[in-house]
Design brief:
This protein is mostly helical and about 70 residues long. The chain contains five helices and no strands. The protein has helices at about 1-10, 10-30, 35-40, 45-60, 60-70. α2 (about 10-30) crosses α5 and α3 (about 35-40) crosses α4 (about 45-60). The longest helix is centred in the N-terminal third of the chain and has 19 residues, at about 10-30. It is elongated and about 35 Å long.
């Protein structure tokens, strides 16, 4: 964590979260995979947890993001 913070300026957890959100965004824009399927592909047990996680980092839902960026 200390090394990650020195190199990137953010914690390892924040780095992982940023990467995961970026990957989810790419999947939402570049594929037509249903959001409930993306939920399991990205390791979430419940769609509600997936939506809350995504919204925490982007301030919009995955559905809204897909609609605005397709």
């Amino acid at each position: 964590n200390d090394i990650c913070k020195k190199v990137t300026g953010i914690t390892a957890k924040d780095y992982i979260n940023e990467y995961l959100v970026l990957e989810i965004k790419k999947a939402l824009v570049l594929t037509n995979i249903p959001i409930n399927k993306l939920t399991t592909l990205y390791g979430f047990d419940e769609a509600t947890n997936f939506v809350k996680y995504f919204k925490r980092y982007t301030q919009i839902t995955p559905k809204q993001f897909r609609k605005e960026n397709k």
